[in-house]
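B., you asked whether I could sanity-check this one before it goes into the benchmark set. Here's the sequence:
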Amino acid sequence: MHGLALTSPAELAEEATLAALLRCCVREVAGPRGLVWPAPPYLLLRVGGALLRARTRGGAALRFEGRPERLEAGAWHPLTADELVRLAEADLGGDRDHNGEFAGQVAASREAVAEILRARAAAVPPADPWLASEQALVYGHPFHPSPKARGGAGWLRYAPEAHARFPLRLLGVREDVLAEEGDAGALDLLGVAPAGYRLLPAHPWQLDLLRPRLGGELVDLGPGPAVVPTSSVRTVYAPAAGACLKFSLDVRITNCVRKNAWYELAGAVELTSRLTPIFDEISGKFPGTRWLPEPGYRSARLGPRLLEGLGVIVRDGPWTACSPGVTPILAGALAAGTGFGPAGSARPDAVLAGPAGPPRLGALGRDPVAWWAAYVSAVAPPVLELYFEHGVILEPHLQNVLVGLDDSGLPVEAVFRDLEGTKLVTGRHDLTGLAPQVAQALSYDAERGWARVVYCLLVNHLMEIAGTVAGGDETLLPHLWKAAREIFVRQAGELGWPLPLSDLLAGSPLPAKANLSVRWARAADRSAGYVPIANPLA
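And here's what the prediction gave me:
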């Protein structure tokens, strides 16, 4: 297939699936065993006893071009995703520790990508450039064996990558069984509830899964206003409310069943209250720093299943957070231009394009090092400041950060979101008075929290954006990381050179999340471990 144009959704999905699984094998299977060798223009590795090779794109070790191959009887033969699954299974456990679900999850993800590509070709992207960027993650996480695996049926009608748009279902909750904390008033802009009831929007997919008994305490008010799903699938933007709504979905999306546990509902409101003065202080020091508070939630107090299953968290919309003239763009959409999709399928300008065209990225083309320095300056220093000075652990991965671009396309603001992944360093905050489950869910010990910050900020985020900026020019990468190092060094000096940051700048390996291993183990995402990878800041 090398050198041939890929036009079929099935072919594109196969190549993307194969490349993602191969990257996982390099990072988690062959790499730790010393079974990866550069042989330009190829990367060689041994998986399941077989010798494989993949042509690298632009010299980038984990960006592949064309079909990887397997050496058999002295000749190279094209590799398929199904074959690589079997080879990976042999190394991951074989007959001793077999995961009967794994192959099916990889195949389901591949089919989902093909379905998304077919639907996307016939759909119209949102005119809003921010929403277009939210719906740009066609191939998903580049280091996940099944990035688009989704449970349940009928998911395509709700898929952001397929440019979905759908009406909410509106329920009325009798006031005596209403569950609410904080300010969830934005939900009342979505419709009108009858006397004695409060409005509760529901995701139609979740309502089909839950099938609650309606009538009396919980009544069906019919269809509501249209919403647009964002990159996480279960969080939607509701133009009628000017807010994002984070619903529960009782389906597995990549690693997790995406349900709002009761302590996460309460925790979002608690964190919003605690972080408001902290972010005010941070934005005073770093004027480009923004965040999206989650001021309230609403649900029905009708037993644990419905309390969690119907719980919806209100989150501020990004346009209200950004300054006038600044366009918020999902960081993950920019990273989709790193070449992790099939050849030629993902460029920054293409993935961000809406009916009005893509946001202007001229500043990136004119001076990529200056653009990168502006990007790192917007994103990294506030994350480090929050951790070391305030004991706050952000989760600044590619789906949790929006980058504010000015009219020239230069990054000038960073918008942090999703309080589910935000934690407080144990012992740095007084959590007296909180329910034990809420306090436990809000806390990480310092070492675990630092690993999470480094993984999300550097491995998941900045390394992928660096790939976007460099394109296929590997000679540019040292200049990018030199500029990034200067920013980190300056921030380390401001913070008094804390030991974890000093070790990072001295070249300590970076922790890369082991998505393949956690899926193989059928473990909860929170139990995922890390594998060490090279530190480009060294």
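One thing to flag: The mean pLDDT is 91. Otherwise nothing jumped out at me.
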